[in-house]
Amino acid sequence: MGQQGAGKLYFAGVDIGSNAAKSVILADDQIIGQAIVPTKADVENSGKTALKAALESAGISEEELSYTVATGYGRISASYADEVITEITCHAKGAHYFFPNARAIIDIGGQDSKAIKLDSYGNVVDFVMNDKCAAGTGKFLEVIARALEVSIDDLSLKTLAGDYACPINSTCAIFAESEVISLLASGEKEENIAKGLHYAVAKRVSSMFSRIGSNDGDRVFTGGVAKNAGLRSALEEVLGTSLLVSPVDPQLNGAIGAAILARSNKLEELEN
Amino acid sequence: MIETLITYDEALKRRPDEIVEARRNGNKVVGLFCCYTPVEIVHALGLIPVRLGWGGDDNLAEEGIEYITNIQCPYVRQTIGVFKEGKNPYAVNSDVVAISAVCLQEYRMVEVLRYYFGKETLTLSVPKNFYLPEGQEFFEKEVESFTAELEKIAGRKLDQGELRKSVALYADIRKKTAELYDFLLLDNSPIRWGQIIKVIHAGFYLAPETHLSLLGKLIEELKTIPVSDKVKPIGKVRLVLAGSIIAQGNTKIIDVLEGLGVTVVADDICTGQRTFVGLEVKEPTLAGLAKAYLDRTPCAAQLYPEQKTDKRLINLFDLIERHRADGVLYHTLRFCDPYTFRVEENKALLDARDIPFLQLHTDYGANDIGQLQTRIQAQVEIIKRRKKEAAHVGSQAAV
Is residue B169 included in any domain, yes or no? Predict the structure, then answer.
């Protein structure tokens, strides 16, 4: 690629999560391509597949890329990337891209949930991440949806139709599954159970949110689970605040951040 | 390649046979737990001291559940598992197991060793009011009766001359270990923290005379290694690792940190730097030992009522300053309450000084390694950016 200003520069971000691999292509600072593919057992290949699909949607070839940043738990197996950056840093940049006033992020992915505090430049100031337990993650919702024999989307819709949030005491995915089965057996409505479950996740995540201690600015909800309207409304109620969700698929937020960092790091390299 | 580290490995390989041979010749081995147990007395009585306690093996930790619950810390569970398995030469060859009762879980562990495995055990009570004269008086008497019990095992009385020699020997070991840590003060140390920890753990098993001689050799060798200037200090993130015990065999945190290229420049761990920090025996007597051990930089299970006088916090801030650390990683072993209780306090105090703090809550399982890597790497990214910004501001100010 030529010098800065000698034409458009292309950058890629690849976010390999536990459930899905996401990729975004930037032309300068505009998104021109994107893709989401399932993460398979071959993690390295899943990232490559996502990148390839995003390049196709952008209509450019891999050789035209100036710089690629990989993120997500599969970032370690990303030989195609120029740099590897954690999804925490990437999510902050991604949220800042759409919402410059964002000062806090809740990110819920397949196996992680995180609360991130950021400054006015989109830099991470502090973060809290769940430990190895699946409570408060997409995996939790998946396990429960299976117990209720519904899809994740239907689980979310059911929440909105619930009369009240049936209390769920277990935050462990395995225990919650047993609790749900007992509630069903006792004749509780599925909608109320679904609503209760989303509240249980929301409470779990809100405690992380309070630990980062962010009181000002916009709050942004990112990650695949941000598409779940039921959980979003439960979180907003528990936190007592509205949550912004990116106009582009929130599941792409990490990949967008990675592409933005690819751009800024490459430009910095060119300057020096 | 550091030659003396190979010599250490070879000495460790020989050690079990040496111990078996010594026992055959009538010597007795005392397995010690916890850093509040005065090793000098054991040595001065002609007994063979080894420090026990193991970590890092989830399967052995599972074995321990048969005797205590699964909500006990994995270190305690694994150590019981090691005794159950009956293969570890230091566990098998310990004629007596001695513990200072600081951590309740570890104390219960020693009870389990007595009840279920028939081990002879000795307990040294450590007062919780250790900062008061009453506590010190109590501990002095405890050390006396602990010594009387050890004398029975040794079949002889404690000789003051021998005690003096043992006190001097262990003081030398602590001094040399401190010198070893001083290499970490450099921008590019010839030895990594993970290697130093292995040396300290080797010292738990080796004859103290061997350990001291090898420490001297190691330091001399390190002085001959030219200091590399390849890595610019600004690109390097210097961290202090504090918190729960990292017992022999537990390389999980060390491997994750080294895999990420993180430089640990100091630690606040009872099986690391705290084996010598703040421990100075001024008088080679039982009273002198009691005073020194009780005054040492304390375990988090020993609480000070006031933050201002809390020597553990004072030591932590001193380490950060002396070793020019950029932040603190605070390791809490799952169900290790004394250290977990104090996470928020430590974080608040460090936040107030604008020192980045990250808690690493983990056990011996491998399933959270990815999450640990993400957390540590994200913290490193924050610190690197801050250092870069500070350097930028600094260079602008210079102009």
Answer: no
Query: ipTM of the predicted structure?
Result: 0.85
Q: State the total domains in chain B.
A: 2
Specify whether B272 is located in the same domain as B376. yes
Best probe of the B interface among A105, A127, A131, A207, by most B CBs < 10 A, is: A131
Calculate how close chain A gets to B344, using CA atoms only, in Å.
10
Taking an 8 Å cut-off on Cβ atoms, the answer to whether B374 and A73 are in contact is: yes
Q: Which of B381, B383, B385 to mutate to test the interface with A (most CBs of A within 10 A)?
A: B381
Does a structural domain hold residue B162? no
Same domain, B277 and B381: yes
Tokens 């893709």 — which residue? A35
Are A88 and A116 within 8 A, CB to CB?
A: yes
Residue B349's domain spans which residues? 229-398
- Both B150 and B283 in one domain: the answer is no
- B271 min Cα distance to partner chain A (Å): 25
pTM for this structure? 0.90
Q: Which of A73, A124, A132 sits opposite B378 (nearest CB)?
A: A124
Strands A20-27 and A30-38, by their bridges, are antiparallel
Question: Looking at CA atoms only, how far is residue B377 from chain A in angstroms?
Answer: 7
| CB-CB under 8 Å, A86 with B374 | yes
- Which sign does the torsion angle of CA A20, A23, A29, A31 carry? negative
Copy the structure tokens of residue A190.
Answer: 């599925």
Domain boundary among B130, B156, B182: B156
pLDDT digits (tens, 9 = 90+) for B106-158: 999 999 999 999 999 999 999 999 999 999 999 999 999 999 999 999 999 99
Question: Which residue numbers of A have CB closer than 8 Å to B's CBs?
Answer: 73, 76, 85-89, 112, 123-125, 127, 129-132
Going from the first residue of chain B to its last (399 residues), give the mean pLDDT of each consecutive group of 10, the final group possibly shorter: 96 98 98 96 98 96 92 96 97 97 94 95 96 97 98 97 98 98 93 96 98 98 82 74 97 92 94 94 97 95 89 95 96 95 93 95 91 94 91 76
| B10 within some domain | no
Q: Tell me the CATH number at B303.
A: 3.40.50.11900
User: Using the beta-carbon criterion (under 8 Å), do A129 and B375 form an inter-chain contact?
Assistant: yes
B213 within a domain of the structure (yes/no)? no
> Among residues B95, B127, B156, which one ends one of the domains?
B156
Which residue of B351, B374, B387 is the best one to mutate when testing the A interface, meaning the one whose CB has the most A CBs within 10 A? B374
**Nearest-CA distance from A264 to chain B in Å?**
13
CATH number of the domain residue B60 falls in: 3.40.50.11890
Q: Which domains are assigned to chain A? A: 1-99+250-272 (3.30.420.40), 102-245 (3.30.420.40)
The CA distance from A103 to A218, in Å, is 6
B-chain residues within 8 Å CB-CB of A127? 375, 378
